[in-house]
Write a structure and sequence with these properties.
The complex is a heterodimer of chains A (284) and B (414). With 284 residues, chain A is α/β, with parallel strands linked by helices. Chain A has twelve helices and nine strands. Chain A has a single domain, classed as Aldolase class I (TIM Barrel). Chain B has two domains: 161 residues, Rossmann fold (3-Layer(aba) Sandwich), CATH 3.40.50; 216 residues, Rossmann fold, CATH 3.40.50. Classes of the chains: A alpha/beta (284), B alpha/beta (414). Chain A: It holds the Pfam family Trp_syntA.
Chain lengths: 284, 414
């Protein structure tokens, strides 16, 4: 179930993974390095690092804006690989991007050259929101060749045959989309999360829930519902955006990101503890 | 049976997982209702196209153009379809299909506003709530169409990201669909997007070539040497070509927007044209593998055309395939030539064409020898919506064909 033991290994039952997302290069290369490292200091277990694509159809406004800032500041696939190589963090890095960038990098050769380069600079896996299981074979094969994981997103609408197909293809962890729609921080936790988790209860890959998680209490609630990890993007990108708009010093923004990361990680741990306390073993 | 998912290496379904179940549901509905005419869907569609839409549209012999270019020029008058463009064929088909599927709400993107107005009309006709996403730039340059959509009761949602044109409007409509997919049908406006949209939209639009093929036999006693249509996303193009694809002796000419230049500014991410078939290369955008205007990294370029309806960085996957196969010949006509053709058709044939359509006539003017002895040109839409743009753009240029507007100044002076 895992090509790279580091990724699945970051999720533990009593220590659920906190998986933050930032767009690489937002709002610029140097600041972004600081921000990603701050997340690691704050307790990130895995980091989803976005490679910005000009048409991000799965993203809400917060991350669309982050992508525009990063592209305007000159982020490209080659710069992204430099960025990853330069990052000083010791947690697994997952590249989140759209298929055209992966595909174009190799020109005639398909996704293989991109995957090879990503493996070379230290990427552990991929999330590609516009690549459903139907179209994923070429990327899957390249990931297998270089021992990288390919994470799939299970949506609230995913049922039956589609779940079976994804179960066969997924590795590393499964990204459980908490609600319909696009990415973005929300003030509530969706009931769809519980239903989605229940549908994949017997899968043996870790289950990470994302889309809409904003604070520690959400994280606790979702871990209590059975998640092995939580994915948080927009609530962190909001901090980057605010710092950029108010022209704040990079170190001040990094401090706030670190504090937010700590709050979310602690929430996840709290949820795991509550879950452990409430569980009555089934055979008693 | 025509292909429905992949067209050679093009097509496919590159969309977020959240949409895939809806795509599967739509594929099932397409096969049952459109391909197999279940519950008489196609019969009802054809009847409504007749009674509400005004089909069949005429095929008209163009006296002046035929004489000027020394070739028999026939005009397929899609500008006479209800709403003033070919767009209703598809919009009516999809809104009716949504109704058969039990959907409660319609969303659509629009560039020039023609697809938005057609969808708004079809939704009002079939009593479905409708919301249209439209780029802010396009809202400003297509004001009459925005007003028409509002008159038909549709909500119009401005899209402010990026340059605010068709590309951004499609992305935003997909985002709405990802949120509302269980109750909503997305009426995509061209032969683009994930399967089954490209095949389904082609099937709804192929009524154009189905009629034209019969009509030209009546008029000319034979098939044409060529069919000419403008190409943006490509729905009027494939609609005009579909029934002629198997007629190997009929040349199929797809005329794209050459814009102000075919040279790309990679630094700025701008292609000052929309000549995707002529100059684009393979990639994945908005759910399909197709030809795209993109930089060497794979970021999508901002396209340009004086005509909003052709202003798109992608093109239908089936057209990309037919071009690679050598069956369809891509060509392009720049902004100036399209504007001249707009004036020429207005003056010589009494038909004010859409700026999109004018590209096809610009091609005829520049290449009269390339169309053979008998040609069919699709008049994909009428030009009322473009009058403001045309006045503005004409004033900025020194065109061979022009209109003297000094009457306004004279009137003001009275």
């Amino acid at each position: 179930m895992a090509n790279n033991p580091d990724l699945a290994g970051a999720f533990e039952r009593d220590d659920p993974a906190f998986v933050p997302y930032l767009a690489a290069g937002d709002p610029d290369y140097e600041a972004s390095l600081e921000y990603v490292e701050a997340l690691a200091r704050g307790g990130a277990d895995v980091i989803e690092l976005g490679l910005p694509f000009s048409e991000p159809i799965a993203e809400g406004k917060t991350i669309q804006d982050a992508i525009v800032r990063a592209l305007d500041a000159g982020m490209t696939p080659d710069r992204y690989f430099e960025f990853v190589a330069e990052l000083d963090v010791d947690v697994p890095l997952v590249c989140m991007t759209y298929y055209n960038l992966i595909y174009q990098y190799g020109q005639e050769e398909g996704p293989r050259p991109f995957v090879e380069k990503a493996a070379d600079v230290g990427i552990t896996g991929f999330v590609v929101p516009d690549l459903p299981a139907e179209e994923a074979d070429p990327l899957r094969e390249a990931c297998d060749e270089f021992d990288l994981d390919l994470v799939f997103i299970v949506a609230p609408t995913t049922r039956g045959d589609r779940l079976d197909r994804m179960r066969e293809q997924v590795s590393g962890y499964v990204y459980v989309q908490a609600r319909l729609g696009t990415t973005g921080a929300r003030d509530d936790v969706s009931d769809q999360t519980d239903e989605s988790l229940a549908r994949i209860d017997d899968w043996d890959v870790p289950k990470a829930v994302g889309f809409g998680i904003k604070e520690g209490d959400h994280a606790a609630r979702i871990v209590r519902a059975g998640a092995d990890g939580i994915i948080v993007g927009s609530a962190l990108v909001d901090i980057v955006a605010e710092g950029y708009e108010n022209d704040e010093p990079v170190s001040a923004v990094a401090d706030r990101l670190e504090a937010k990361a700590r709050d979310l990680k602690e929430g996840a741990l709290r949820g795991a503890q509550q879950r452990a306390e409430s569980v009555v073993p089934e055979d008693q | 049976m025509s292909e429905t998912v992949k067209f050679g290496q093009y097509g496919g379904q590159y969309v977020p997982e959240v949409l895939m179940p809806a795509i599967e549901e739509l594929t099932d509905a397409y096969e049952r209702y459109v391909l197999d005419n279940e519950d008489g869907f196609m019969d009802e569609f054809r009847q409504r196209l007749r009674d509400f839409g005004g089909r069949p549209t005429p095929l008209q012999y163009a006296d002046q153009l035929s004489e000027a270019y020394d070739t028999a020029v026939y005009l397929k008058r899609e500008d006479l379809l209800h709403g003033g463009a070919h767009k209703l064929n598809n919009a009516l088909g999809q809104v009716l299909l949504a109704k058969y599927m039990g959907k409660e709400r319609i969303i659509a993107e629009t560039g020039a506003g023609q697809h938005g107005t057609a969808t708004a009309m079809a939704a009002a006709h079939l009593d479905m709530p409708c919301e249209i996403y439209m780029g802010r730039t396009d809202i400003n340059r297509q004001r009459p169409n925005v007003f028409r959509m509002r008159l038909n009761g549709a909500e119009v949602n401005p899209v402010t990201v990026g340059r605010g044109t068709l590309k951004e409007a499609i992305s935003e409509t997909m985002r709405d669909w990802a949120t509302t997919v269980e109750t909503t049908h997305y009426v995509i406006g061209s032969i683009v997007g994930p399967a089954p949209f490209p095949a389904m939209v082609r099937d709804f639009q192929s009524v154009i070539s189905e009629e034209a093929r019969e009509q030209i036999r009546d008029h000319a006693g034979r098939l044409p040497d060529s069919v000419v249509a403008c190409a943006g996303g490509g729905s009027n193009t494939m609609g005009s070509f579909a029934e002629f694809v198997d007629d190997a002796d009929v040349d199929l000419l797809a005329v794209e927007a050459g814009g102000s230049s075919l040279t790309v500014n990679e630094q700025e991410g701008v292609a000052p044209n929309s000549a995707t078939l002529s100059t684009g290369d393979e990639g994945v955008l908005h759910g399909a593998r197709t030809k795209l205007l993109q930089d060497s990294d794979g970021q999508i370029m901002e396209s340009h055309s004086v005509s909003a309806g052709l202003d798109y960085a992608g093109v239908g996957p089936e057209l990309a395939h037919l071009v690679d196969e050598g069956r369809v010949t891509p060509a392009n006509v720049d902004d100036d030539a399209a504007l001249e053709a707009f004036h020429r058709l207005s003056q010589e044939e009494g038909i004010i064409p859409a700026l999109e359509t004018a590209h096809a006539f610009g091609y005829l003017h520049e290449n009269p020898d390339a169309v053979g002895d008998v040609t069919v040109i699709n008049v994909s839409g009428r030009g009322d919506k473009d009058l403001e743009t045309v006045i503005e753009e004409t004033e900025q240029r020194d065109l061979d064909v022009d209109v003297d507007m000094s009457v306004f100044e004279a009137a003001e002076g009275m």
